[in-house]
Amino acid sequence: MIRDITIGQYVCGNSVLHRLDPRTKILSTVSYIFALFLIDSLWCYVLNFSLILIFYLICGISLKMVLNNVKPILPILILTSIINLCVIRDGEAVFSFWIFSLTDRAIFFTLTIFFRIILLIFSSSLLTYTTLPVDLTRGIEKMIKPLAKIRFPVEEIAMMISIALRFIPTLILEAEKIICAQKSRGFNMETGGFIKRAKCMVPILLPLFVCAFKRADELAVAMESRCYRVGGQRTSYKTLSFKKLDIFFALGFLAVLTMVFMINAFFR
Amino acid sequence: MRPLIDVNGLHFSYLNENFGKEVLNDLNFSIQQGEFIAIVGHNGSGKSTLAKLFNAIFLPTSGTIFVDGIDTLNKELIFEIRKQVGVVFQNPDNQIVATLVEEDVAFAPENLCVSQEKIGKIVDRALEMVDMKKFKKSAVHTLSGGQKQRVAIAGILAMNPKCIVFDESTSMLDPVGRKEVLDVMKKLNRENKTTIINITHHMEEVVFANRVIVMKDGEILKQDTPRNIFSDEDLLKKSGLLAPQVTEFLNTLCGELALKKRTVLDVDECVEVLAEILEGEKIGDS
Amino acid sequence: MAIVELEKVSYAYGKSKAAQDEAISDISFKIEEGEYVGIIGHTGSGKSTLIKHLNCILKPTCGKIYIDGVDVWKNKATVAGNRQNVGLVFQYPEYQLFEETVEKDIAFGPKNLGLSADEVRFRVARAIEMVGLSSSLLGKNPFELSGGEKRRVAIAGILAMDPKILVLDEPTVGLDPAGKEKILNIIKYYNRDENRTVVHVTHSMEDIARYADKILIMNGGKILSFDSVEETFKRASMLRSVGLDVPKIYEVFLKLKDKGFDVPLNVYTIQRALEVVKNIVERKVKP
Questions:
Q1: DSSP bridge partners of B41
Q2: Sign of dihedral through CA atoms A188, A189, A192, A197?
Q3: Beta carbons within 10 angstroms of residue C22's beta carbon
């Protein structure tokens, strides 16, 4: 079901990860993702994978939640994996059958892509699971603040992100309602080819857009009524501050990543 | 005394859609500080448009609205007006800006550049008034409709307004949620002397008002006490309204039994009058 | 034979822990053909979950559902057949409109049933008449209509599928009194004149008391009571104990009784109340 998708949702808790400053978490996640794309040794992926599993264990979030996020893209992931396996011909054949042959390079490449995507979802989900959307946007806002000097609309961007995050659960519920309503009018979206299926989405997407626009319009009026003005001066209810914990975590995390890169260099 | 809201010769029409068709046509009325007003009328009678004119979201096409002495056309004092007149809208989901209850309540003070330590106090006080303090740290999407609407009210209270307009704020709620919101309205009116303007379809809510404004097709048909409004059957028919069940029952009964007309507003009043009618028959019998 | 029969139906929402999730447990009841059943209960009592089972939007975790004598989850064909038999009008149905004309939107359901073009046209014409809208609206864009009209178009979209059982989830919520009356009259017409079975979910006891034959009360995912309107209101204290309101007029008579007046208690509509009082008055005057 759609409501099982939990991207962008926060899970209440009080673990070390929950208590970290959002900026620490954002920077760690970004560097982790960078690392994912820079390393090319399978051992390092295994290492990175166990690292993220440990994090999930620490903050007590069930893996089932994040697996639900992986599910929707799984078909595409498997399909591309199969294509990769079939198409990549260089390297030594490990296994061959009729006209197909699997090379070690193909297996390696496929596994790398697979790990990268899965870990990308795992790490970014972990960030939103342990960070309140408001903190997340506040963190981003603080980090891109210097850009305000070159007239970059920092506060507006932050406001947009926070509203988008706020409306994710609302819109997911709405989509589900509309699907149910059209189903009960005999609508069937599971049959037919790609184009037919795409066309079939109109009865779902159109009402969803209409509702989203209506919501946006009403929200804009409500915000104006509460004295919001684009580009206006604002104060902040809460401010962020780095604590000792952040320094420990950042140093520790940096050490682990450096280790990963060293292993990567040795085992290639 | 200077009225809190003063509406003079107000006309309004939308510029793009329904061009030329007047949404509001020559409205004249004023509202005093501390009043509890109900505005009723069929869908499309212009009630909700009026709500947005009170706090300068819309501006009059002609005529004027003064809020606490300030003309809503005065662009420089627009925040002053919006601080005085807060609006709670129909759909709780579409007026809550933040994910967390406390963050949402803090939204208006943040916009008004209130200092950090003051905002904390304002948030606590506002949540206290709507009895939602224990949900301070909750995520908004986990709350019930009535609770969300109370958060929305707290968000308005954070501006410390003199007047709160409820624009069909109970229409999407279940009976429990509706009662919660209605109780908050009554409490604010009683304890803080906040002026309440309740735009509604629920006639059970109208009976609490000091004054009812009945609208039809952008015009005011009548303004009077709930009792006088509900006794005017022609008016009810003309404006497409239904009196509360007990009121309608006794109105019809008095008509059919050719008794002097008595307009009641709630169950207890109805019981009293019915008892009198039945009692009277007893005496007449013996 | 009962047209709707539920046998020990239970449903649990996955492993999701969201607060708004309702679940139902061990629900069994029968609805006879042509009955008007009102379902009432708090938000979260399971009523929305329950009605989603009636046209196979949700599959029960355990238990059986028979509609028109057919076990609906037997195979794919029975599920499709069930959607044809049961028309479900969701809350705020106007939000599901999407076609560029009213006509096309009402025709969406019948077309999905695979009917001929002529039949579809006929069904659309009949449906728009049933909901009391002028056929001149057919060529209009549904988004130009008023809120109440939009809702009636959405209901017409369901009626055009000619369901044997019409299920409505709070069809009058958010409308003005006149709009509300119109919707209630459409439902009554479909039940009385077309002789179809109606299941009407609502929070308003006063709406239900007027037209329903039976009332099903849900509480905490279970059936609290399923009985005729009269029997249901006889147990007013039970209704109050789960926080449901009884019609105001019923409360009046309850209080009169407490005051020592000899009045009947089976009064829950204005019509009935008028009869009762006039009766008493006349009886007192005559002898």
A1: B215
A2: positive
A3: 21
In CATH terms, the superfamily for domain B5-243 is: P-loop containing nucleotide triphosphate hydrolases (3.40.50.300)
| C285 CB within 8 Å of a chain B CB | yes
Radius of gyration, alpha carbons of chain A: 23
Q: Which of C2, C129, C4, C125 is nearest to C54 (CA)?
A: C4
Interatomic CA distance for residues B272 and B250, integer angstroms: 11
Tell me, what's the pLDDT at B285? 40
Which of A165, A218, A227 comes nearest B95 by C-beta? A218
Count Cβ–Cβ pairs < 8 Å, chain A vs chain C: 61
Task: Write the DSSP assignment of B114-133 as a string of letters.
Answer: --HHHHHHHHHHHHHHTT-G
For residue C78, give every residue at least 6 positions away whose Cβ sits within 8 Å of its Cβ, in sequence order, or none: C70, C71, C72
Taking the CA atoms of chain C, what radius of gyration do you get in angstroms? Answer: 21
Predicted local distance difference test score (pLDDT) of residue A43 = 82
Kindly tell me the burial class for residue B14, based on how many C-beta atoms sit within 10 Å of its own C-beta (0-12, 13-18, 19 or more).
middle
CA dist C40 and C225 (Å) reads 10
Domain boundaries for CATH 3.40.50.300 within chain B: 5-243
Instruction: Say yes or no to pLDDT of B284 above 50.
Output: no
A173 → chain C, closest CA residue: C20
Could you list the pLDDT tens digit for every one of the 287 residues in chain C?
789 999 999 888 765 444 345 588 889 999 999 999 999 988 888 888 899 999 888 888 889 999 998 999 988 888 888 888 999 999 999 988 989 999 999 999 999 888 999 999 999 999 999 999 998 999 999 988 888 899 999 999 999 999 999 999 999 988 888 889 999 999 999 999 999 999 999 988 888 888 899 999 998 889 999 999 888 888 877 887 777 878 888 889 988 988 888 888 888 888 889 998 888 888 776 55
Average pLDDT over residues A19-38: 90
Question: For position B127, what pLDDT does the model report?
Answer: 96
* pLDDT, mean of residues A51-62: 88
The C-alpha atoms of residue A239 and residue A20 are separated, in whole angstroms, by 14
Q: Give how far A222 is from chain B: nearest CA, Å.
A: 5
Residues of C in contact with B43 (CB under 8 A): 146-148, 175-176, 179
Distance CA(C59)–CA(C49), nearest Å, equals 10
The structure's pTM equals 0.86
DSSP annotation string for B24-74: EEEEEEEE-TT-EEEEEE-TTSSHHHHHHHHTTSS--SEEEEEETTEETT-
pLDDT at position C22 is: 54
The nearest alpha carbon in chain B to C242 belongs to: B176
pLDDT at A216: 93
Helix (H, G, I), strand (E, B) or coil at C269: coil
Sort residue C4 into left (φ over 0), alpha (ψ -120 to 50) or beta: beta
- Any CB–CB contact under 8 A between C280 and chain B? yes
List of chain A residues whose C-beta atoms are within 8 Å of the C-beta of residue C98: 202-203, 206-207, 210
**Rounded to 5°, angle at Cα C223 from C218 and C228:** 85
Higher pLDDT among residues B21 and A41, named by residue: A41
User: CA–CA separation, A203 vs A184, rounded Å?
Assistant: 12
Q: Are C252 and B175 in contact (CB < 8 Å)? A: no
DSSP H or E stretch at residue C273 = helix C270-285
Identify the bridge partners of residue C200 per DSSP, sorted by sequence position: C38, C168
Higher per-residue pLDDT: C199 or B278: C199
Tell me which residue in A166, A225, A229 faces B98 most closely, judged by beta carbons. A166
With an 8 Å Cβ cutoff, is A187 touching chain C?
yes
Q: What is the ipTM of this complex?
A: 0.89
Contacts of residue A188 in chain C, CB cutoff 8 Å?
112
C95 and A210 within 8 Å at the Cβ level: the answer is yes
In this complex, how many residue pairs, one in chain A and one in chain B, have their CB atoms less than 8 Å apart? 94
